[in-house]
Write a structure and sequence with these properties.
The complex is a heterodimer of chains A (410) and B (42).
Chain A: H1 6-33, H2 39-66, H3 100-118, H4 128-151, H5 156-160, H6 168-186, H7 202-220, H8 229-257, H9 262-276, H10 285-309, H11 317-335, H12 353-384, H13 391-396, H14 398-403
Helix pairs in contact in A: 1-2, 1-3, 1-7, 2-3, 2-4, 3-4, 3-6, 4-6, 4-12, 6-11, 6-12, 7-8, 7-9, 8-9, 8-10, 9-10, 9-11, 10-11, 11-12
Chain B: H1 2-18, H2 26-41
The chains are: A mainly alpha (410), B mainly alpha (42).
Chain lengths: 410, 42
């Protein structure tokens, strides 16, 4: 009979609050990266999703993602619609030492931030109404099924043996691929010489990155779902990978462009956090150094390629979350060891090449599914209301034109 | 209660679809443009 452990419960309550703070942190991270005429609209995307997905998750998102399987390992049933049957007692299936409601709330914070990550791709040109409809549909038809595949014991990728400690595929790869599709669908911003960012407030972005880093301890160490040694391992690997990626990114940009970029430190740290997410509870601290180094190099390269390809993924969501998420999932297949987590599996470097193959299958399946369904959702939303704002609105800025407010008085 | 909760969200969803786009903010844009025009006229 599952029984509540007060230490575990206290840690997951705290972690849930930490992960919640990441979404306002993301709002600041993205808000600083856009031009001053679009800062409110960019912040509003994340903040509105905080409200929107909190409600949809309670009503139907949780049951679709974690409810008893409908039979094929693809989606949960409606048994827990509006949290019917989800109580303060522990679940028989998930995190059996904390209240089931708390496990639901912890997962809710992941469901909130995932569609918020995508908003960086269509920043400065997406119609608010289209954004709202897109967010409801995406969290329902993309996030919930993928979460079920990977994290439900009946999910087909879970059954296959995929390792994703805190959401490298579920959160980052899915949103990164969706961001690329959205950027291609909506087209490039007008008024920019090239599809690069023109940050209006770098300190705001660095503050946002700091809040993300802070909240990520809840994201990853909280995913141990208990106050224990595994949480401590995830805490250390998370911090180490973020730190290594930050100093790697700065070093590369220093050599490449001649200056150690402050913005690069912030973006590099986030890339490191993304890459360690699937691995945090399966790898050693030493492996997390290598993961941070690798993702710093790979994501910096991806961001440069994105610029050359002239794809206006405005805030490099694909380069950081898509590429970083895929890199982390694959790195988990390389470095995972049961010495860190007996509930996991060994990776290639610990004698199990099959784990790498499983990780690659998961990356391909999640990426493909997210791309196809995101494209379909964008097409359908565009039939209801144009995804992109009119040219004069884009020129004026979305803050005034869409929200009737401005961030800064002249 | 579950049905009532779903319906309440559905009402909001319909409201979002029916809500005005940037059209409602056009007066604000025009006001800003007029304000900006004052120094030029002077």
């Amino acid at each position: 009979m599952p029984q509540i452990d007060t230490g575990d419960t206290a840690w997951v309550l705290t972690s849930s609050a930490l992960v919640m703070l990441m979404t306002p942190g993301l709002a600041l991270f993205y808000g600083g990266l856009v031009r001053r005429k679009n800062v409110l609209s960019t912040i509003m995307h994340s903040f509105f999703i905080l409200g929107l997905v909190s409600v949809t998750w309670v009503l139907w998102g949780y049951t679709l993602a974690f409810g008893p399987d409908t039979g094929l390992g693809l989606i949960g049933g409606l048994d827990w619609l509006a949290l019917e049957g989800v109580t303060g007692d522990p679940s028989d299936t998930y995190a059996t030492t904390i209240p089931h409601l708390l496990f639901m709330a912890f997962q809710m914070m992941f469901a909130i931030i995932t569609p918020a990550l995508i908003t960086g791709a269509f920043a400065e040109r997406k119609r608010f109404k289209a954004f709202v409809l897109f967010a409801v549909a995406w969290s329902t038809f993309v996030y919930a099924p993928i979460a079920h595949w990977v994290w439900s014991p009946d999910g087909w990728l879970f059954q296959l043996g995929v390792l994703d400690f805190a959401g490298g595929t579920v959160v980052h790869l899915s949103s990164g691929i969706a961001a690329l599709v959205a950027a291609l669908f909506i087209g490039r911003r007008t008024g920019l010489i090239e599809p690069a960012t023109e940050p209006h407030d770098v300190p705001m972005t660095v503050l946002g990155a700091g809040l993300l880093w802070f909240g990520w301890f809840g994201f990853n160490a909280g995913s141990a779902l208990g106050a224990n040694g595994l949480a401590a391992t995830a805490f250390v690997t998370t911090n180490t990978a973020a730190a290594m990626a930050a100093i790697t990114w700065v070093t590369i940009s220093w050599l490449h462009k001649g200056t150690p970029s402050v913005l690069g430190a912030a973006i590099g740290a986030v890339a490191g956090l993304v890459a360690i997410t699937p691995a945090a509870g399966f790898v050693t601290p030493a492996a997390s150094v290598l993961i941070g180094l690798g993702v710093g190099v790979v994501c910096y390269g991806a961001a440069q390629l994105r610029l050359r390809a002239r794809v206006d993924d405005a805030l490099d969501v694909f380069a950081v979350h898509g590429v970083g998420g895929a890199f982390g999932a694959i790195a988990t297949g390389l470095f995972a060891t049961t010495a860190v987590n007996a509930a996991g599996f060994d990776g290639l470097l610990n004698g199990s090449p099959g784990q790498l193959v499983i990780q690659l299958i998961a990356v391909a399946a999640v990426g493909l599914y997210s791309a196809v369904v995101t494209g379909t959702i964008l097409f359908l939303v565009n039939l209801v209301t144009p995804i992109r704002v009119a040219g004069d609105v884009e020129e004026t800025g979305l803050d005034l034109a869409q929200h009737g407010e401005v961030a800064y008085q002249p | 209660m579950v049905i009532a909760a779903l319906v309440s969200f559905g009402i909001l969803l319909v409201a979002w679809i029916m809500a005005p786009d940037e059209g409602a903010a056009r007066p604000a844009i025009a006001a800003q443009e007029n304000t900006e025009a004052i120094p030029l006229a002077a």
